[in-house]
Amino acid sequence: xxxxxxxxxxxxxxxxxxxxxxxxxxxxxxxxxxxxxxxxxxxxxxxxxxxxxxxxxxxxxxxxxxxxxxxxxxxxxxxxxxxxxxxxxxxxxxxxxxxxxxxxxxxxxxxxxxxxxxxxxxxxxxxxxxxxxxxxxxxxxxxxxxxxxxxxxxxxxxxxxxxxxxxxxxxxxxxxxxxxxxxxxxxxxxxxxxxxxx
Length: 198
Prior knowledge:
The protein is an alpha/beta fold.
């Protein structure tokens, strides 16, 4: 099964991806835990450019994310799924739709179309979207902020609205979670949802 975690920076998605990975591994399942941008040598180089480099214009940003994702799917995600492993990914194409499509104003449908082409149409079986008020998400960020984390509240609000639109469009795939709840309770909701589906 291919499972992704989405949400604003500070929503707790990385924690939930780690908790699910640990639980599945404890059951003896093969799990490939990965992240975006990143997951491959090329992807990690692109990640460094995107998050710690200088100014990147919105379309260049969207295309770099899509390039990283294309490599990631071909090199890591598809091979893992083909051999029967679980893939747990911290961010995937919904992040680009929210951050570049919504946050940067490039358009949800345009960015989705670009990314679906880049990954050959591969969608997750289940996406967990951790929803949190953008102002609260900002207060949870660590001391050192990357280029996207330094964006203002209006950018975060646009990304949040785009995430909510995606959830409304794809309710069969995207499960919304209240990210203000304790991490352990959220982890139980995630696991329970996957047990019902599998």
